[in-house]
Amino acid sequence: MRFDGRVTGAILDPVLLVGEHVRLEPLGPQHVEGLARASADGEVWRKWTTWVPAPGQMAATIEERIADHARGRMVPWATCLPDGTPVGMTSYWDVDAPNRRVEIGATWLGASAQGTKVNPEAKLLQLTRAFEDLDCIAVEFRTHWHNRQSRRAIEALGAKQDGVLRNHRIMPDGTLRDTVVYSIVRDEWPTVRAGLRARLRSA
């Protein structure tokens, strides 16, 4: 499969991705209340090293992400438990069709879903689609230098650090973010896939 105009359209399709522990549902207004509760779970929206919409900002944030999807900028999902309960968000971010690359970003989970099998299976679903359905040659991840929890989670996937973009972004509180860039390239995908499957089989 080539990453041509036809496949570019496919990558922007709001597909449902379903695993044993998680459902990635195309983001919509029906997720506002559940995601507001997820944001309040552990008050994750207060974390300074990332941006999580506050409960009262959830409706506007979902509208913005749907608009960005319509502009071809991202593919947003609500991260849900098997029963449909929303516990966070994730997306394909910064789609680069000519170079067959995507970033998995704008990802967050409520506190009770962190450290469970939700995140590794969500990443398995997203990476499988990227490499096996869409013929990507690389998938990126980016996070705050000081977000050590996020960095550990990305490294646990098997992603390798490409570098650090210093003073890359201005955070909502006015601080400057050094952004750590990671990636998984196509030749690494079989090993990464095996590692994620082994994690999901473990107790």
Automatic annotation (TrEMBL):
Q: Quick check: keyword Transferase in the entry?
A: yes
Family matches, as Pfam families: Acetyltransf_3 (PF13302)
Stretches assigned to coiled coil: none
Top-rank taxon: Bacteria
For molecular function, the Gene Ontology terms on record are:
acyltransferase activity, transferring groups other than amino-acyl groups
Keyword presence, Lipid biosynthesis: no
What positions does the domain N-acetyltransferase occupy? 22-160
Q: Which InterPro entries match?
A: Acyl_CoA_acyltransferase, GNAT_dom
Task: For this UniProt record, give its keywords in alphabetical order, as a comma-separated list.
Answer: Transferase
Task: Show the PANTHER family listed in the entry.
Answer: BLL6696 PROTEIN (PTHR43610), N-ACETYLTRANSFERASE DOMAIN-CONTAINING PROTEIN (PTHR43610:SF1)
Question: Which named protein is this?
Answer: N-acetyltransferase
Q: Which organism is it from?
A: Amnibacterium setariae
Q: What is the lineage of its organism?
A: Bacteria, Bacillati, Actinomycetota, Actinomycetes, Micrococcales
